[in-house]
Amino acid sequence: MSLAAPPSRPTPRQPVSRHRYRVRRLAALTLLVAVGAGAAKVVSTLGDDGGPIDTGTDVVDASDSSVAPVETSGGDGIVAPDESAATTPPTEPPPDDTGPPTAENPAVVLIAGDSDAGTFAPYLDRLLGDTDLVDTTLDYKVSSGLARPDYFDWNARLHDQVPAVDPDIVVITFGGNDAQGLLDATGDVVAFQPVPDSDNADWRAEYGKRVGEVMDFVVEGGRTVIWVGIPNDDDPDVTFRMQVQDETAKAEAAKRPSIVFIDTWSRFSGRTGGWAE
Length: 277
Hints:
By secondary structure, the protein is an alpha/beta fold.
């Protein structure tokens, strides 16, 4: 995990769908999560109960005596409902393919984020590729995140990439590069990096806003969004800041039931809850 600030600007030194109904079941098959100091792999099973699709169309049985007669608009008489019209299937086009993914009509997965995404993506791509049901697109940027839009603007990038890729599932993560001061697009400091003995309310509020905006955008259209949290670090100071970051992202995911949050902090901690190689 790269923790160095992007070389282009110094880090502040102050204290610091197509078929989305059933494609959700693809996420239930398996998820490979590989995040850590170097590389680690974990398979996490996700579940989502499916059900019959309600087309919203009522079919009227003309032979049913409970069906009220229809009064014509131009005469005095009453006529019974047209039996042929009542039993004719709806003429509206069927919804987009809601069947399970196939080799001919695969699910589309977008994996996005910083170098952590670039670390586990090849394993996840290989795992999903073995199913012959998935097309995977990887989009990652080393030393990037949501803290420094002056260096790399992920919000803008996703607004370009998501419509272009049109994914059914988005796997996304931002790692230790965000455990620093938060800048705006012009490079001005918005919130200094988290420090001990403080609730770091300003930092949490700003970072939570950025995370929430990304979550709300990528989940539009009923996409399955899998947000991969971050693990701790072997440097206690960095671990403290990353814990504030991870807690903030996890809190935002909790506000949005459609976001699947993968808690790698617990997964990769040692027996005492601290750093583990």
